[in-house]
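Example (one chain per record):
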Amino acid sequence: MQLRSRTPRTAWNWWAKQLVDAVGAHIVGGGYSFGEYDISIIVDAADDVTMAAVALAIAAGGAVKAAKTTSLLSGPQWVAALKKAPAVSAKYQPAK
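Predicted structure:
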């Protein structure tokens, strides 16, 4: 997506409207940072496929040089993963 405004506040609103209109995703929060990435955005999407579509569309627009997408688990999702981990550990053999 290309920035259509010089004011960051208006840009956030513009991005948020596009996400909602396209796939029903919402920007929950974010901010401008310094370091490896210049901006961080927390997006609430229906599922990982929807978020992947958002990330692909933003990257394809050419306004982003590099991006990183990280899925956040809720508390119950994390507990479910912890319960499944022993079954994986019982079968997993690390490469040697």
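Caption: The longest helix spans residues 75-91.
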